[in-house]
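Hi support team,

I submitted a single chain yesterday and got back a structure, but I'm not sure I'm reading the token output correctly. Could someone confirm the output below corresponds to the sequence I sent? I've pasted both exactly as they appear in my results page.

Thanks,
R.
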Amino acid sequence: MGKTLGDFTLEIKAGEFTDSEIMVMLGENGDVPTLNVSYKPQTISPKFKGSVRALLHEKIRDAYTHPQFITDVMKPMQIESIIDQDVQNLSGGELQRVALTLCLGKPADVYLIDEPSAYLDSEQRLMAARVIKRYILHAKKTAFVVEHDFIMATYLADRVIVFDGIPSRSTAANTPQSLLAGMNRFLSLLEITFRRDPNNFRPRINKLNSIKDTEQKKSGNYFFLDD
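Hi R., thanks for writing in. Yes, this is the structure output for that exact sequence:
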């Protein structure tokens, strides 16, 4: 399937997705284009006049008072600590936590989440990833996530959709692949290799043209799930 918008063309290759699955969409900036869909945008504008509580009551009235949603989303996202603050006075990180809560609180078949790690510190990013993964699993829904934080992307992804082509001009959305195959394909486009840190097991970029970088490129292993 193909779509054209002005000078931008998008080709979408056939694929399928299942319930309780998170698809992470990877591509260079300008590659990834932004059913019943709940959408969390990359940037958040605090236009709402009123408290966080009033916003949640207006947008997700049933969800934000439900005991399971409170346990799975509200508490780990620490919404209670800011619930009576004015939305327009929230920091970027606080707005992000509210936006993720609003997105997951809306009844939908598909959730599209753009940059869930934006404005969050490292601890909050890990918590947000856990919340998204647990919610999608338990609710038996599907999520498509655009994420440029590599560690968060690898944690979230059940499978990967790689976008390639000419950024902002001509892009192809490839068939969903396994995490390992998708990451290898994406990193090969960038000509970057990753290794697993032996101490904390986090992905680390190999120095360009280092022995490790050269060896992995020759073998076609740009990314490892395990050492």
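A quick pointer for reading it: The chain is about 35% helix and 20% strand. Let us know if anything else looks off.

Best,
Support desk
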